[in-house]
Every structure is written in C-alpha cells, then in structure tokens.
Amino acid sequence: MRYIRYAFLAVLAVCLISVAMANRGMVELRMLPEELGNLFGLNRSVDLPLFIVIFAAIVAGLMIGFVWEWLREHKHRADVARKDGEMKALRREMQRLRRGDGKGGKAGKQEDEVLALLDEAR
To answer: pLDDT for 59-81, tens place per residue?
Structure first.
C-alpha cells in the first residue's frame, strides 16, 4: 500500500511539474475589470506566471470546499455531541442505580419490598 501511495505522489508531481513548465508565460492578474477599477480607484494588478495562478486557484478551491463541508456537517457533529452527552448521563445513572445510593436508593428498595409482599399475597 505504501508503494501505491508513493507511485501516486510521483505521478502527481510529474503532472504538476509538466503543467508548470508548459505555463510559464506571464499574465496580468487584476483585482477588478479596468473600467470598474477606474470607477472605484482600485486599479490593482500583478504580473505572475500562469502556473502560479492555476495552482493558487486549485488551492483556493480546495480550501473553500473544506470550509463549506465543515460548515455543512455542523449539524451532524452537534447531534453526535448531544448523543454522547446523553450516553454519558445514562451511564452515570446506571452506575448510581447499581450502587443503590443517591435518589431512589431506599425508596427503590421499599418499593421492591412492597411489590414482593403483593406477589406473596396472590
């Protein structure tokens, strides 16, 4: 399995390097279209190799996807946390009842004795 992972990473590295070598040309990256930038006074631009723009877009898409998925699964994580809290409370209650202390210790025994007497009377 380890060799498959290394082979996959090697193929991925070769693909990324070939994309970078094929797209070395400089491109102008603008924050806004020229007319809109003139209107707002935000004529910001930077010259970058195209492969950096491509790789930055891939990384930005992955980050947006991870955050989107994390927010989408919030309800599932909250439900699991709620059920985990309920389970812990039920375990504490079960241990308390097994020990016979706390609320219902003597009252529970008295009720059992009353039920036993009623069963004997039949």
So the answer is: 999 999 999 999 999 999 999 99
- How far apart are the C-alpha atoms of 122 and 115, rounded to whole Å? 11
Read off φ and ψ for residue 48, nearest 5 degrees.
-135, 155
Q: Position 63: which residue type?
A: M
Residues near 72 by beta carbon (within 8 Å), at least 6 away in sequence: none
Distance of CA 89 to the CA centre of its chain: 26
Residue 83 contacts residue 75 (beta carbons within 8 Å): no
Residue indicated by tokens 């079960």: 94
Res 97: pLDDT: 84
Domain ranges (residues) in the chain = 1-62+69-101
Radius of gyration of the chain (CA): 33
Residue owning tokens 């003139």: 38
